[in-house]
């Protein structure tokens, strides 16, 4: 293990992705592509989809074409912060951006000011993770998948009624449900 890998391992501590109650947790790795699935209890689309053509974010039913925005590169932004870079096929903004002033989520063109909402903390919880936006403006901070209508926003808390604040992150193109339709 080289020095860089060692430092990255130390910076993550016990952070891991969870594959379910019977599986072993696997550490997340920077510069690796993941899919992010909402574990909310309302039926509907679940996969986080960045729409680079218009800078929006929503939820889609599966990891199939034309949804190339379901691929997210995990980036190390330092000081325990991460960024999610959308790997969609269309040119446009790519960074998952929590807009804490309005409680909305979209894509930003870069991670520099004024886009402080592109910094996230991944918080491990039983059966998944919470994604906390570290934007500079006070407001809602928890990534919330609204599976009933396929939208995404920020919630003030991870407590009910915000069941869409629990997420599962898996390396792409590993499937969440079998059989797996690959793009």
Largest sheet: 4 strands, antiparallel
Query: What is the CATH class designation?
Result: Mainly Beta
What order do the SSEs take from the amino end to the carboxyl end, as H and E?
HEEEEEEEEEEEE
The count of DSSP E runs of length 2 or more, i.e. the number of strands, is 12
Assess the beta-strand content as a share of residues.
35-45%
Tally of distinct domains: 1
- The shape is globular
**Helix content, binned percent:** under 10%
Write the CATH fold name: Trefoil (Acidic Fibroblast Growth Factor, subunit A)
| CATH structural architecture | Trefoil
Read across the widest sheet, the strand sequence of neighbours is: 5-4-1-12
What is the rounded Rg? 15 Å
Q: CA-to-CA gap between the ends? A: 33 Å
Unreliable runs: 1-24
By DSSP (H or I, 4+ residues per run), the number of helices equals 1
Outline the fold blueprint.
Elements: H1 3-12, E1 33-38, E2 47-51, E3 56-60, E4 72-78, E5 81-86, E6 95-99, E7 104-108, E8 120-125, E9 128-133, E10 142-146, E11 151-155, E12 167-171
Antiparallel strand pairs: 1-4, 1-12, 2-3, 4-5, 6-7, 8-9, 10-11
